[in-house]
Design goal:
InterPro entries: DUF7287. The chain is built from four helices and eight strands. It is α+β, with helices and mostly antiparallel strands.
């Protein structure tokens, strides 16, 4: 005698179908990280941020410590930096070896004055009363970020057009201050 009943058969088929449905619904989720989408390469922004913070604006010996001259020259779009710095003059896309069709924005943000609240876009000024007449960083909203001050932002303006953006941030040191380097690609 086989001792198999209709109920045993129905339970077996139900378990089999449940496992089959689970497998078909689970497999696309496993493959999803390998599919290309609007954010086709999140590692691209990480590579750009690492390249800026560890090589182009600083040195490999002191990663995440930016060279003041090279950083100000990069954001000022100065052509005289190529002799002293690790990059050639050009657009941010060209400096970072990115596809020229890709939009990029590089910004330094931070809170460097005691009166500021939160993190703001920064400027570099050669003579700042807030720094006792010495060169230094000030927030863009500060009155000293005018005239010959260099706004520490470069690249395309970030416009919300529904495009997916990819952002990478690095905490770096510039002129003895901790600031945030943000690289946005879209």
């Amino acid at each position: 005698m086989r001792a198999q009943t209709t109920i045993d058969f129905a339970i077996g088929i139900a378990i089999f179908l449940s496992v089959l449905v689970f497998a078909f619904s689970f497999v696309p989720g496993i493959l999803q990280p390998f599919e290309l989408s609007g954010e086709e390469n999140p590692s691209l922004s990480d590579r750009a941020a690492d390249s800026l913070s560890q090589e182009l604006l600083g040195s490999a010996e002191r990663p995440s410590v930016l060279n003041r001259y090279c950083t100000v020259a990069f954001f000022n779009e100065s052509n005289d930096a190529s002799g002293r710095c690790n990059y050639d003059a050009g657009s941010p896309s060209a400096v970072l070896n990115l596809d020229t069709a890709r939009n990029v924005n590089v910004t330094l943000n931070g809170n460097v004055t005691t009166s500021g609240s939160g993190s703001e876009q920064l400027c570099w000024t050669e003579s700042s009363p807030a720094n006792n007449g010495e060169p230094g960083l000030v927030e863009r909203s500060h009155a000293e970020c005018a005239g010959d001050a260099v706004v520490l932002a470069r690249g395309d303006d970030i416009v919300d057009q529904g495009d997916a953006t990819i952002t990478a941030r690095r905490v770096v040191s510039l002129h003895g201050r901790s600031v945030t380097l943000a690289v946005v690609l879209w």
